[in-house]
Amino acid sequence: MLLETIERQTGDNPQWSVIWLHGLGADGNDFVPIVPELVRRHWPAMRFVFPHAPVRAVTINGGARMRAWYDIVGMDLASRADTAGVAESIAQVDALIQREVQRGIAPARILLAGFSQGGAITLSYGLQATTPLAGLVAMSTYLPDPASAASRLLAGATAQPVFFAHGSADPVVPLALGELSMQTLRGLGFTVQGHRYPMAHQVCGEEIKDLADWIEQRLQLPA
User: Fold this and answer.
1) Hey, which residues are catalytic here?
2) pLDDT in tens, the chain (223 residues)
């Protein structure tokens, strides 16, 4: 079954799609307000898809049930994402991408974005993308299990450019872990545009502007 989603279109007959994954404990509503801040008037019509992660018990939060893309079992951020949960979420995201394809949006016109836990799924999906997407957006996040990343990488996946943004004072996902993830991705052959902002575990206006600039490059608009 497809995940429940919230959708916003910037015009009729969208030519591009953006699938945006929220963070732990949030839901698809979390990033809906970013659409008018991000989108520029001269861009082609776009469909934004904001899925709700499944509700599951999260070990690190005392087993409390909340929306989460995977269970978090400990404080070791580099390896704490449960493998089964990540794989399940990758499959659910792929189903949403395939729905966009069925709606007439080619993978080369689909962007996958995620914040925190959602960003971890975005990067994990990106390693295993059988057909490259237009790009990956990773915000305040990390690549789960970087030591095995090379073994999970599929041919052609590195054609996907990556926008990677992180706060220098992030208390949830330390900056060092984000930078390690960027280094890992670059070592695998990904083109990563990295940004650091003076903020905590959040999104700032400068980041939205930089992301809009990056998306505009992907859109390849005529001069």
Assistant:
1) 116, 170, 201
2) 899 999 999 999 999 999 999 999 999 999 999 999 999 999 999 999 999 999 999 998 999 999 999 999 877 755 577 889 999 999 999 999 999 999 999 999 999 999 999 999 999 999 999 899 999 999 999 999 898 999 999 999 999 999 999 999 999 999 999 999 999 999 999 999 999 999 999 999 999 999 999 999 999 877 5
Q: In 3D, which of 178, 160, 187, 57 has the Cα closest to residue 119?
A: 178
- In the chain, what is the greatest distance between 2 CA atoms, to the nearest angstrom? 54
Query: What is the C-alpha to C-alpha distance for residues 169 and 167, in angstroms, rounded to an integer?
Result: 5
- Number of Cα atoms under 13 Å in the Cβ half of residue 156: 8
The model's pTM is: 0.96
User: What is the spatial distance between Cα 205 and Cα 213, in angstroms, rounded to a whole number?
Assistant: 13
Phi, psi of 27 (to 5 degrees): -150, -175
Contact predicate 110/100, CB 8 Å = yes
Between CA 148 and CA 216 the distance in angstroms is 32
Amino acid at the residue 64: A
SS3 assignment, position 218: helix
Q: Residue 9, SS3?
A: strand
